[in-house]
Amino acid sequence: MKTVTFTRMEDGTEADYKFLEEHEAAFAYDLPNRLMTRLEGLRDSLSGYKIDRLEHSLQCATRAERDGADADWIACALIHDIGDDLAPYNHDSLACAIVKPYVREECAWTVQHHGIFQYKYYADKVGLNPEERQKYKDSPHFDAAEKFCRDWDQNSFDPDYDTMPLEYFRHVLEQVFRRPAWSDDYIKA
């Protein structure tokens, strides 16, 4: 396999960085496939619920689609808990880091904060403040995060819900995660 000539970045040549740029573009293009693999891995994630984390994620995405949500929202609904395995206490931040370069600010902000917005539905049962989200009441994205959690997330633990399979959402992941990263055409839309 061909590699760069340097062992220290400062010693790289234009040819080295052109070579790496081509590899990076191909790697970035494959992101939807890696996301599909990671989502599939959620089958063996956090347990104790009536359904596994993949089914929960699929249920959220299915609900979002059936609610008329666009590709940004559907992708975020699918990805929002992908960080459970590696970041159990800040999974929302990890998921946000994945979606932020590709989706509207409103969607990324919601993914980033959905954990605290979920408090509304259970915090009083574990000694936390169910209204903790109110510290974000002045955010222009407050209502979107509230809707995300109310309509798609907190109610997506139903083993009898007619959920679409993972492969059904491949086209959404390809549409969203093959966009140019950080493009104002998407993140500022």
Question: What does this protein structure show overall?
Answer:
With 189 residues, the protein is an all-alpha fold. The chain has a single domain (11-187), classed as Hypothetical protein af1432 (Orthogonal Bundle), CATH 1.10.3210.10. Helix content is 51%, strand content 0%. It is built from 9 helices and no strands. The protein has helices at residues 14-29, 31-41, 53-66, 71-79, 91-99, 105-118, 142-153, 170-177, 184-187.
Please bin the fraction of helical residues: 40-55%
Into which percentage range does the β-strand content fall?
under 5%
User: How much is the average pLDDT?
Assistant: 96
Radius of gyration: 19 Å
Tell me the count of domains: 1
The helix/strand order is HHHHHHHHH
CATH class: Mainly Alpha
Find the CATH superfamily.
Hypothetical protein af1432
Largest sheet: none
CATH architecture descriptor text: Orthogonal Bundle
Q: Determine the oligomeric state from the structure.
A: single chain
Number of separate strands: 0
Q: Segments where pLDDT lies below 50 for 5+ residues?
A: none
CATH topology: Hypothetical protein af1432
Distance between the terminal alpha carbons, to the nearest Å? Answer: 41 Å
Total number of helical segments?
Answer: 9
Shape: globular
The class by helix and strand makeup works out as mainly alpha
